[in-house]
Write a structure and sequence with these properties.
- This protein is of the alpha+beta class.
- 32% of the residues lie in helices and 23% in strands.
- The strands form three sheets. The protein has a six-stranded mixed β-sheet. Strands 3-9-8-7-6 form a five-stranded mixed β-sheet, with helices on both faces. Strands 1-2-4-5 form a four-stranded mixed β-sheet, sandwiched between helices.
- The protein starts with 8 loop residues before the first strand and ends with a helix.
- The mean pLDDT is 94.
């Protein structure tokens, strides 16, 4: 499992005191394969952290030799000093690995505004220590080093005939789309060029990470990176690779959903028979971001009226008085009016399925979200994030 499952990769995670817990907080993943291909997608938030600004430039040539990630500080809104920290981190890694600093990506996660001299010293020391500890089996500890409020590490792996894809992710809050959500590193030993890697990654994130909308809050540090070693020597069919990459991405997105801060329900919103996929996404997202609906699910209340009220705020094509709604397999609303009694719906399981039939076309989309709980409010009021 994780980023060192494919051939050609080494990783490590070390503890340098960025986290008060003393747990690992700096990770490095290095591509040792014959290919050094990379692709990445980033937050579309106009407020971007220094590592994002750096990595967006570094990825332009489609080459990634290594990626350095830290938890315990976002290095966002830390001014020119913070950008210099990112630059120095890339240079430190490049010097130790014998590569170009422009081929090293940087990721940070934690409290916005954190990135002073102490932070810089620890990140640079952690980079050096992690590179010294690189191991073909180091993917597990690397995945632990990028955790913040996560309760567990997220890892995934799929194997095909002679090649594979591995991945790790962090994220438990501020999960909302904008080309990517959270920090994710995905590796493969398949043979791809930069154009193929970029196209496959964007297709995968568009249907998986982009449709995880846990709390509607878009981070400043979101990045999903694909690293290609080519160490298997096998160039898979592009469609087969795209499907495998989407499988890993979907698995990681589900793990992120299941670990969302304070959540007691994992809600899958399926919008059917929309006029377009864009309409289906807009409708699903309007419900995923509706606090009244999310609070109702927390209370095990199948309040379908809140669903119709939410989708009525969109510009999607549909007749509000000809919509059907199912909750956990029970049709509670048909043609915009009551159907089965609410007491027929069991919302006590964590897995919650909501189906919305717009009856105007053939397009569909699925959005993942969570309920709104006391624990979510407590965690985000008691912990600076």
């Amino acid at each position: 499992m994780s980023v060192t499952a494919p051939q050609g990769f080494e990783a490590a995670g070390v503890a340098v005191g960025l986290k008060s817990s003393g747990k690992p907080d700096v990770a490095v993943v290095v591509n040792r394969g014959p290919l050094k291909v990379g692709a990445a997608v980033f937050t579309s938030n106009r407020a971007k952290a220094n590592p994002i600004i750096w990595s967006q430039q570094a990825i332009q040539d489609g080459v990634v030799e290594a990626i350095v990630l830290n938890s315990g500080g976002a290095n966002c809104f830390t001014g020119a000093f913070g950008f210099q920290t990112t630059h120095q981190t890339a240079e430190k890694a490049a010097d130790l690995l014998g590569v170009s600093a422009g081929d090293v990506l940087i990721c940070s996660t934690g409290l916005i505004g954190t990135g002073d001299e102490v932070f810089r010293a620890k990140v640079l020391a952690g980079t050096e220590q992690a590179i010294a500890a690189l191991d073909p089996e180091g993917g597990v500890v690397a995945s632990e080093a990028i955790m913040t409020t996560d309760s567990k590490a997220k890892r995934s792996h799929v194997a095909r005939d002679g090649w594979s894809i591995g991945g790790m992710a962090k994220g438990a809050g501020m999960l909302a789309p904008g080309l990517a959500t959270m920090l994710v590193v995905i590796t493969t030993d398949a043979v791809l060029d930069a154009t193929q890697a970029d196209a496959a990654l964007r297709a995968a994130t568009g249907r998986t990470f982009d449709r995880l909308d846990s709390d509607g809050c878009m981070s400043t540090n979101d990045q999903v990176t694909l690293m290609v070693s080519g160490a298997s020597g096998i160039a898979p069919d592009p469609d087969e690779f795209a499907a495998a990459l989407a499988e890993v991405s979907a698995d990681l997105a589900r793990q992120l959903q299941g670990d969302a801060e304070g959540a007691s329900h994992d809600i899958t919103i399926e919008v059917r028979n929309a006029a377009s996929e864009e309409d289906a996404v807009e409708v699903g997202r309007s419900v995923a971001r509706n606090n009244l609906f999310k609070a109702a699910i927390f209370g095990n209340d199948p309040n379908w009226g809140r669903v119709l009220a939410a989708i009525g705020t969109t510009d999607a094509a549909f007749d509000p008085y000809d919509v059907d709604v199912w909750m956990n397999g029970v049709r509670v609303c048909t043609q915009g009016g009551p159907d089965a009694p609410r007491e027929d719906v069991d919302l006590t399981p964590r897995a919650t399925d909501l189906v919305i039939d717009l009856k105007v076309g053939a397009a569909t989309a699925t959005i993942l979200t969570n309920d709104l709980t006391h624990d979510y409010v407590h965690e985000n009021s008691a912990y600076s994030s």
